[in-house]
Amino acid sequence: MNIIAFSKALYSTWIYYSPERLLFDSGEGVSTMLSNKIYAVRNVFLTHGHVDHIAGLWSIINTRNNAMGDREKPLTVYYPAGNRGIELYADFLKRANNELRFKLEFVPVKQNERIPIREQSSTTRYIKPFSVVHTYSETAYGYHLIEVRRRLKEEYRSLPKEEITRLVKSIGSDEITETYEKKVLTISGDTVLLKKEDIIDTEILFHECTFLKKEDRKFNNHASLDEVIELVKEANVQTLILYHISSRYVRSLERTLRKVNIPGTRILFVHPEKIFEY
Ligand SMILES: [Zn+2]
Ligand SMILES: [Zn+2]
C-alpha cells in the first residue's frame, strides 16, 4: 500500500504518498487517521488555502511536538507563492508554537519549480507544481511527482536484444540511451478540469470530481465526472483516482461510477466517508 487518503468536498482532503513520505494537503482529521504515521511525513504540499485542505496542519504540528514519537524530524510545508490565506495561517502556527522541538519551515513555491525529493544515482525524483484554476481569489496549484528515467533512443528500439548487448559493450549504454521524465503521480488539487498537457502519460492521476452531475455545479470552480472522463480518455493515464467528491452523492456513488469505463485506464474513487488505501 502506497497511498492513504481521505477526501470529502468542503470538509477535509489529504493524500499521503508513503514511498516518498509526502502529504498532499492536510484537511482536518489527518493526524487522527494517520496516527503514528504522521511522524513519517517529511514534506507537505498544500494545493491552496481553503480550510478543508489546511485545517489539519495545526494538529500535525501539535501531535509531532507532544506525542512520544520522533520529535526531532524536520517538517517542510510547501505552498503556492503569494497565497495570502496560507501565509497568515503559517504566521499564526509559527507564533502559536514558538517552542517547537523540530524544525518547521514554510516554503513558497512557484509553478514549474523543481523541488528535489530523491537524488540518488539510481533514482531522481522531484515535485513540479503547476498552476490550476479554482476560485478567483485563490492561488492554487496541482503537483506532479516526476521521475527521471532512461530509455533506448528511438533508433535502437527495434533492434534485437543481442544487438543491444553488443552495442552496450562496444560504445556504452550512455550512447544508445536518453533520459526522459515520467509523471509518477499527479494531484489536481481543487480546480476546474485540468488541461490535457498537464496529465498526459501520468501513472496515477488524482483528479478532483466534486460533482457527479454537471447540473449541480453553480459556479465554474470545480470539475464534474463526465468532463474528467472525456479528458482522461485522451491522455494515456494508467490509474485515475477521482476525489474531492461531494457527500451529496454518497447513496448513488457506486452505482454511477460502476458505469464509467475508459479503455486502458483503471478508475478508482475516494469515497467521501471512507479512508482510501491503494
Ligand atoms: Zn476543497
Ligand atoms: Zn477549494
TrEMBL record:
Chain segments annotated as transmembrane: none
A Pfam entry, by short name: Lactamase_B
Gene3D superfamilies to which the protein is assigned, alphabetical: Ribonuclease Z/Hydroxyacylglutathione hydrolase-like
All copies of domain Metallo-beta-lactamase, residue ranges: 20-66
Domain of life: Bacteria
Protein name: RNAse Z
